[in-house]
């Protein structure tokens, strides 16, 4: 009744409620942030251990996270409702002279609400991301342990497959090296063949230009053939004589 008679008292009461809710939200968000930080630290501390006991601490933190999330969401909803009531009050007849100050106050409370909402969703998102990542890593570690504790036959077979795969890779690499060497040799021989053809062409050119040199070369070739025939005849006669001597 008093609020309905004096709208200014109603506005003061709403501002008081808003401040009270903002103080509660501030304390809750600080505790909520500490909970998420301690959750991440406890996960990191257990990551490299081989303890197989249930993670009671993390289970308790999960329940606390869910409880605090609900409480913070409820406080945010209440603060939103109070801000809406203050917005309605600014449109009440008779508050035109105080409208600028009331709008400024309302905007400040809305900014605070927006900051708290953003901080809550950010912290909650980080917590859920950490929990999802750690659950995934835990599943991977479990699969690795299961694989390591598998039968010796499967491990031996896998090892043989890996060795065979490495052997095939080495063979393929060796084959590629051999092909590369063969291609380089072919290119070198082709280059030398071209050089020899060029030299022969130059010699023929010189011989055609200078007949005397050509005749001299032909005489040298005839003498080489004659010497070869004489040498072959002598060797043949000596061989026949040796055979006759050996059989007699």
From TrEMBL:
Question: What InterPro entries does UniProt report for this protein, alphabetically?
Answer: Golgi_SNAP_su1
Q: Which residues are in coiled coils?
A: none
Mainly localized where? Answer: Golgi
Give the protein family.
Belongs to the GOSR1 family.
For whether the record's keyword set contains Transmembrane, the answer is yes
State what this protein does. Involved in transport from the ER to the Golgi apparatus as well as in intra-Golgi transport. It belongs to a super-family of proteins called t-SNAREs or soluble NSF (N-ethylmaleimide-sensitive factor) attachment protein receptor. May play a protective role against hydrogen peroxide induced cytotoxicity under glutathione depleted conditions in neuronal cells by regulating the intracellular ROS levels via inhibition of p38 MAPK (MAPK11, MAPK12, MAPK13 and MAPK14). Participates in docking and fusion stage of ER to cis-Golgi transport.
Q: How does it sit in the membrane?
A: Single-pass type IV membrane protein
Q: Spell out the subcellular localization from the entry.
A: Golgi apparatus membrane
Q: Where is this region: Disordered?
A: 39-59
Organism of origin is Sparus aurata
Listed GO biological process terms: endoplasmic reticulum to Golgi vesicle-mediated transport; inter-Golgi cisterna vesicle-mediated transport; protein transport; vesicle fusion
What does the subunit comment say? Answer: Component of several multiprotein Golgi SNARE complexes.
Example GO molecular function term? SNAP receptor activity
Q: Which domain of life is it from?
A: Eukaryota
Q: Which Pfam families match?
A: V-SNARE_C
Phylogenetic lineage? Eukaryota, Metazoa, Chordata, Craniata, Vertebrata
Q: Which terms are listed as keywords in the entry?
A: ER-Golgi transport, Golgi apparatus, Membrane, Protein transport, Transmembrane, Transmembrane helix, Transport
User: Can you say what this protein is called?
Assistant: Golgi SNAP receptor complex member 1
Transmembrane annotation, as ranges: 229-247
Gene Ontology cellular-component annotations: cis-Golgi network; Golgi medial cisterna; Golgi membrane; SNARE complex
Keyword Membrane among UniProt keywords: yes
